[in-house]
Amino acid sequence: MSTAPEIRAPRTTSATGRIAPQYKRSGGSKSQFEMLAWLFMRLSGVVLVVLIFGHLTVNLLLGQGVHGIDFGFVAGKWADPFWQVWDLAMLWLAMLHGTNGVRTIINDYAERDSVRFWLKMVLFAASAVIVILGTLVIFTFDPCPHGITTGLPDFCPAA
Questions:
Q1: What domains can be seen in the chain, in order of their start residue?
Q2: Model-level pTM?
């Protein structure tokens, strides 16, 4: 009669007698931030699919398609507050969704606390700059620039 070999519990001593490697990270927070971030990724992904397909349908399938996209097309679109809010929501959700995804990757692969901290600081700074500049462009865009008389949308006084 043979005896079965002993099966050790995971992360205990290995066959060589050494302790299995484990990450040495600072204590995790006891808040629900990671669960809320996970939930945000799922919900924002669904909303982004709707926003992006709406954006692509209006810009590429309706009207003249890709050949109709020019300054006048964008100016006419952003003259309507609905499209400003639509594009703003798409910008903000895409940036927050992508930033959260890259934050998760940094947490998974950066082993040292200091490296993880600085990578996330660079990520958050870059994301903030892009969101701020994008928001400024959407809301300060002038569809009727002064001094230009050709190629303007029909609603501009100089056209």
A1: 33-140 (1.20.1300.10)
A2: 0.70
